[in-house]
Amino acid sequence: MEPFYMRQDTSIPYFSLKEWEEKFPHLVVGMSARDIHSKEDPDRWNYALHVGEDPGRVVQNREQLLSQLRFPVSSWTCANQVHGTHVHVVDQSERGRGKESQETAIPATDGLITGEEDVLLSSFYADCVPLLFYSPEADIVGVAHAGWRGTVGEIGRRMVEAMESKGASAKTILAAIAPSIGGCCYEVDEKVAHPLLEVLPDASSEVLRPVQPGKWKLDLRQANRQLLMRAGLQPENIIVTKWCTSCHPELFHSHRRDQGKTGRMVAFIGKRKGRGRHG
Ligand SMILES: [Zn+2]
User: Molecular function (GO) terms listed (predicted)?
Assistant: First the structure.
């Protein structure tokens, strides 16, 4: 069964990662969707402050989602994503960074982790792979933005190492790979395939499949799954979505499909205050 469940009980379209939310009632974890009901304004639910976007509307969207998730208005915390591999540990004083403007966002960072309550870690997507993390042992959450550059730079392993430095152990860390472009739609050339093969020399055809000379179909989700297992995660602790952002224009923004003219979904994870780890 698809692990990312489309909520029907809200006015804001988003997916919840049901399994984690049911097991750990203080967790809020999921990913936003496009507005399937609004034909005239399908980019209504854009969450990223990028050039050409009305910042007022983006901030309003963020606040509406926070209110839906029952998180305080000041809890939205995000970074300026640069397709890098830097991981930052968010402390209580950094709560709310980047919510209102790019200037206050955590600079040049693609991975965020925190053990703090009432901090909603958020990062933005239109095809790249969201990696979500939770350590039940250390009660630490994380999110990382893995496009092909982050994937071959092993941002997944860096997230695991950062969580280990905060008391988690790799063999009990849970990871979830959220909606993103699938191997069905992501065609790459040697500029991407070669660095990928350097980091995953034994990549199976499930990860990288030749389609014609100099062209491959790449499944970044499976690549990240294999890299996370190499970093010490148990295969049964890694959840992988089946949703492809490019295949489903009614649900997802897709940079490739829409040739760069698109909004961004948000992947989010946080610990709600006042609820114990076990409900
Ligand atoms: Zn697809």
Answer: copper ion binding; hydrolase activity; S-methyl-5-thioadenosine phosphorylase activity
